[in-house]
Amino acid sequence: MRQELGYKEKSGQFTKFGQWYADRVQDTQYRDAPWCDMFLAWAANKSGLSDYVGEFAWTPSHAAWFIQQNAWSRQPEPGALVFFDWRGGKSYKGIDHVGVVERVEGKKIHTIEANVDRVWLKRKTRETDKVVGYGIPRMVKSNVERLDEIRSTERPFVAPPRSETGHGSPLDVLGTPPALLAAMVLMTIVLSLRVTGRRRGTHRRLPWLPWRGDPAGPPAGPRVPSPRNPFAGERGAGDEKALAGAGSSTPKPQTTPKRRRPYDPS
Is 126 helix (H, G, I), strand (E, B) or coil? Predict the structure, then answer.
């Protein structure tokens, strides 16, 4: 910054600082605009301090940025940006000019300012009655570092990385959500088929399973009589044949008895 002391704007209010800012924001109107704040943006960029100083061309916006960063003060200090209102106002909205405090002596501040005396970049000694406030870059830096520290503690527990143990077992898929969903669907289908079979009367018990005991089948139990003919279960083979023979005989035709007339002599 001090190496630029004595710089003077060119004809048409052209400055290299305005040209740099115009190229940075892709707007040619800044090439011949008032350049007090654009010089500070250029110097901060060259020194790698843009995050703490800011890059602005309009001084009220620059002051508002410091206020938002909680880096606004009424007390001067070396390295602070000093904002002036030549009408003596105390609101950032009326700010006209900005410079950098080089040192403080009593009630006076020694500054480095651009676009002073209309064309120069030079040192100035100022009273503080026209000062609106000071933007403190060191406070911006401190706030940023504190915010980064807070963000770093938002997730204090970090899950350990999963170790790779080669190829997994095929049975690992059984515990996956798709496998569980497929099992639920299969169970639903089986239960619905069993309920439907019972309603239609087609439900059957499981057949005799060979691994339960005798492979020839379950032992024969007593014959259960039919509810329509409770004595059917007690008949033997001879009864069955008798019934079959009785059923095969031809029934005799029945004759209607002749009715006698009254006083019929026969």
Answer: strand
- In the beta sheet, which residues pair with residue 134? 73, 82
**Other CB atoms closer than 10 Å to residue 59's CB: what's the count?**
23
Place of tokens 């190229």: 23
Q: What are phi and psi for residue 186, nearest 5 degrees? A: -65, -45
Better-scored residue on pLDDT, 165 or 27: 27
- Return the structure tokens found at 28: 């040619």
Would you identify the CATH topology of the domain 2-144?
endopeptidase fold (from Nostoc punctiforme) (3.90.1720)
Task: Give counts: helices (H), strands (E), the chain.
Answer: 7, 6
Least confident of 61-70, 130-139, 256-265: 256-265
Among the listed residues 73, 142, 139, the one whose alpha carbon sits nearest the alpha carbon of residue 109: 73
Q: Phi and psi of 131, rounded to 5°?
A: -85, 130
- Greatest Cα pair distance in the chain: 174
Extents of the domains making up the chain = 2-144
Whether pTM > 0.85 for this model: the answer is no
